[in-house]
Amino acid sequence: xxxxxxxxxxxxxxxxxxxxxxxxxxxxxxxxxxxxxxxxxxxxxxxxxxxxxxxxxxxxxxxxxxxxxxxxxxxxxxxxxxxxxxxxxxxxxxxxxxxxxxxxxxxxxxxxxxxxxxxxxxxxxxxxxxxxxxxxxxxxxxxxxxxxxxxxxxxxxxxxxxxxxxxxxxxxxxxxxxxxxxxxxxxxxxxxxxxxxxxxxxxxxxxxxxxxxxxxxxxxxxxxxxxxxxxxxxxxxxxxxxxxxxxxxxxxxxxxxxxxxxxxxxxxxxxxxxxxxxxxxxxxxxxxxxxxxxxxxxxxxxxxxxxxxxxxxxxxxxxxxxxxxxxxxxxxxxxxxxxxxxxxxxxxxxxxxxxxxxxxxxxxxxxxxxxxxxxxxxxxxxxxxxxxxxxxxxxxxxxxxxxxxxxxxxxxxxxxxxxxxxxxxxxxxxxxxxxxxxxxxxxxxxxxxxxxxxxxxxxxxxxxxxxxxxxxxxxxxxxxxxxxxxxxxxxxxxxxxxxxxxxxxxxxxxxxxxxxxxxxxxxxxxxxxxxxxxxxxxxxxxxxxxxxxxxxxxxxxxxxxxxxxxxxxxxxxxxxxxxxxxxxxxxxxxxxxxxxxxxxxxxxxxxxxxxxxxxxxxxxxxxxxxxxxxxxxxxxxxxxxxxxxxxxxxxxxxxxxxxxxxxxxxxxxxxxxxxxxxxxxxxxxxxxxxxxxxxxxxxxxxxxxxxxxxxxxxxxxxxxxxxxxxxxxxxxxxxxxxxxxxxxxxxxxxxxxxxxxxxxxxxxxxxxxxxxxxxxxxxxxxxxxxxxxxxxxxxxxxxxxxxxxxxxxxxxxxxxxxxxxxxxxxxxxxxxxxxxxxxxxxxxxxxxxxxxxxxxxxxxxxxxxxxxxxxxxxxxxxxxxxxxxxxxxxxxxxxxxxxxxxxxxxxxxxxxxxxxxxxxxxxxxxxxxxxxxxxxxxxxxxxxxxxxxxxxxxxxxxxxxxxxxxxxxxxxxxxxxxxxxxxxxxxxxxxxxxxxxxxxxxxxxxxxxxxxxxxxxxxxxxxxxxxxxxxxxxxxxxxxxxxxxxxxxxxxxxxxxxxxxxxxxxxxxxxxxxxxxxxxxxxxxxxxxxxxxxxxxxxxxxxxxxxxxxxxxxxxxxxxxxxxxxxxxxxxxxxxxxxxxxxxxxxxxxxxxxxxxxxxxxxx
Length: 1164
What we know:
The chain is globular and about 95 Å long. It has nine helices and 85 strands. It has 1164 residues and is mainly beta. Mean pLDDT is 83; it is low at 423-442, 948-966, 1047-1052 and 1129-1164. Its main location: membrane. It comes from Fundulus heteroclitus (Killifish).
């Protein structure tokens, strides 16, 4: 910029001649030493014309020389023509100056190519004014450009009939006038094709290699808003079937359709369109309308060949070699509360009145147009309402006429609107007079508009900007400054992203995750954690890496008295008979599990021990004969020939390890090769090899040679992460780990116990950014971080000391939408992220656990079960090498023996421990005794909440409710035995006429009713269709977080329960808001046994027995404490068969019901 002439610098205004734009060159000191705008300038900017298109790599700024005037932050816009501008999207923003002399240089992560740059000040020195000197860094840019008018194309013809390639590299830049259009197309007779096209402003790539009978052509889609009349780059790299498609800075990797490795294209490739309408295989619509620049196909410069009229290139239609300037000029309505454009209007001489314009937006609601009519107060309004266009005529006497038209219009695409009045009638059949006073575009609309015409006269927006026409506020001219907040998609785990102008939200349906960005798994990480939460044996989904990428898988949790077994069956657990196999044609059986290889690896790694039984019965069938005749493949596909034990041996069976083989000359019983049935059964327990993925049996084709084998399920027990602990006994000591990978999202969870009043649990720092979790006082835990928006602090305070030498749970999470902090069962603390703030947490130092880099404010005490983003940190192993830290943690409550059950909390005592069962529905010394009560038809227990109780958590700020994740939460668990139907089991009611109720219907099936919105019908679910009024024990668990009532059903609302009044077990007296079927069940009451009832952290049945005189408890009818729950469970097991202590459920054994319902709700 220092060598540019005076005319290259322009500005919106200048405070005086000595403050003009020409003096805004870096380090310049003459005149006023920089540019400053007028104080009255509402939209100041400084513009630099680079005289030709350049590739810009960085920009630098200074304040005005020797003054108090500087800009502390700014936007950077760029343009080819100086008329249509685009904002450079720099996630971390552009930091300006802190004084007038220091040069601040900002490197662009992705270089931009433009001729014009515009600096738009956002913030400046509050004690001075705006002052700016600038420099631009980059290099010249060579451009080969072609202009396509929507009816033209370039054909690149091959020297031979067809071109077959195993590798392709195609690159181009394009600038489009339309949202649709073909950029590239080629196809071959064997079914290969490649097509690159714009569709709805996104770039679609269709690519097929040799798949002849493809019924459906599915594209790979990248990019968004690509019809903005600005340059975008596209780059395709293909090697065999592996493809990378990059649009601007967004890359998608995928594998092509078909089985071929090469792309075979016949005759030619077409660019800019498909010239022959009847061409076989054509499935695209429009040709490209716009400019293409620097088009390279496998190193060949297509536009250069066309420009030099080379014979390989054939031009169809009117292709020119300069890019025509865009004709459309847009304006952006920036604010939904204060933006407006007011324009004068009058009826035409013919008596017609017409308004036409184009708009694009993400918002589902907004007022587009308001016309005041004569006679007053008639008014015509055109608005977007619930994503549809809605036209309203307000007449005298408050009468209204309404009509809707169109389709969903908040999709970010341009839509054209035309309103015409003719002969006292307008389109959409609304009647109105012809005379109008003025046309007013409302502040409710937030988006872009262009081509605004009134009575067929196009509105000159430049005149509006110059103050020559109409009036406006909070508008940007010459640009559609629209951002796709779903690109890249910051919703995790495959969740769907939706957006408005200012926010994005994530739909977690079917993902198995919840939270603002679908970061948190809705499932426990292991069977061990399910048991700690009070669950019993049954099928469960577990997510072995929590919020990590692996996802949930279903397992059977066999919760015995001594161990908790995780059982993963495979596709063939029945015995398999093998005959007539040979080394040349062996019998091969592959085993597939209901989990991916990575999930299996995570489950095995997390477990304390795993094993898999292999039973091999043989007759004249040795396992080895000098070399292995049979073998199995481990989880990595490696060949293994040992058949038992926890240490991998070579060609050994269990009998050789136990020294009891029938013939001690052999390592396996079957190797004796005798003509009677014998057996080699072994337990494979070397974790790194499990599970078995394949078994190979050879050499059974001899007369009388047979083998029967059986490979059992993979069984694992224990969870190493739960009790992985370290003790810190020096304030200057700490453990260090690699830098946290936490740019966009992170969750940190752990348990601690201490007697110290304060101390840092963990800390990780960057150049400016940091993240820290600490005990800030004896009663408070603080989570703080800085991603560039200034320090954010969340604190949870307890009314009881946290340094009481007892275990306390902490979970801190931060994502691009919000941060949260949970301590024990205290209310969740939430802090919403600022809109358009910095997103990435940039850390560079090591992660310090139990201390800080400065070795100050270190933690004294124990930390266990530290997990970050689903990964467990091995504190014990690292502590072995660190002075001042020891592995494990002393105390009775510091081991994995599960001293307290069913949510019971282990409390350390000087000479032992006790179990605090106050948060548990169970009783007894270790919280494992069923609390059961027998009811008759008139019996009921009502628990009245002490104060209006809302399950909503406290928030530090409020956001638009439509885009804020609901925090409604219920966790309900109970057991029952009855033979009555219908029957009322449990009812929760609120002061606002909402209710949740669980009943048995007339057919005995379980029904769960959710009535969350009183103006709608309740949601009714029947997760168990069979008759449960069968005299046996059934356990029910229902869990809801926000819109999730987990598994396969959909609620119509995500509303919270507002002001919970009471919870009732058995017969319900007050039934004014209930539906008819619920009323019938409520009137019948409940006859039978209810046991271990839990609602969130309230145990109402237990409270009724232990606090009979409490004002919170109302008991009606006979109520008898009983052990019916324990007896029914025992009877249920006796009647239905037992499970083995180490195995999976036996065939035909159902056990008692474990119903963990996991539903997903729709937004209301």
